[in-house]
Amino acid sequence: MNWLARMMYGRYGTDQLGFFTLLLMLILNMVFAFTRWDALYILSFALAILSIFRIFSKNVSKRYEENQKFLQMTAPVRSFFSAKTAGLLDLRTHRHFRCPQCKQKIRVPRGKGNIQITCPKCRHEFVKKS
């Protein structure tokens, strides 16, 4: 295993863009297995070559810039899904409500019965069962 560490010294390695290209390559290969459309196979092969090139590249600054551009382009999608998963993670302990007046999301602890909720944004008060 020491030979691998020596070989990868000074190389860029994996990042989010590399992981995305490998995942896309696997998806294209699965679709190709059902459709037998040659263009998908060629595209997945090109993605594999690109991913391997990026992993073994010694031009770290260029690969870093490419990854930063990818992260900027995918930021809205990633933030949408991270917000959804964050809400799902605490479903056992908290309830999520929206203020009827300003539509602000409000998180309150579960199991407290009927509670009066005050919106932190507009100070509107409403009663809900937690």
Describe this structure in words.
There is one protein chain. With 130 residues, the chain is an alpha+beta fold. It has two domains: 2-89, no CATH class; 94-129. It has helices at 2-8, 16-35, 38-56, 60-89; strands spanning 94-98, 105-109, 114-118, 125-129. It has a two-stranded antiparallel sheet with strand order 1-2. It has a two-stranded antiparallel sheet with strand order 3-4. Helix 2 packs antiparallel against helix 3 (38-56). The longest helix has 30 residues, at 60-89. The N and C termini lie far apart (54 Å). The model has no long low-confidence stretch (mean pLDDT 92).
Instruction: State the share of residues found in helices, binned by percent.
Output: 55-70%
Low-confidence runs of at least 5 consecutive residues: none
Q: Count structural domains.
A: 2
- Helix and strand string, N-terminal first? HHHHEEEE
> How are the strands of the largest sheet arranged?
1-2
The quaternary state of the protein chains shown equals single chain
Q: Which band does the percent of strand residues land in? A: 15-25%
How large is the count of helical segments? Answer: 4
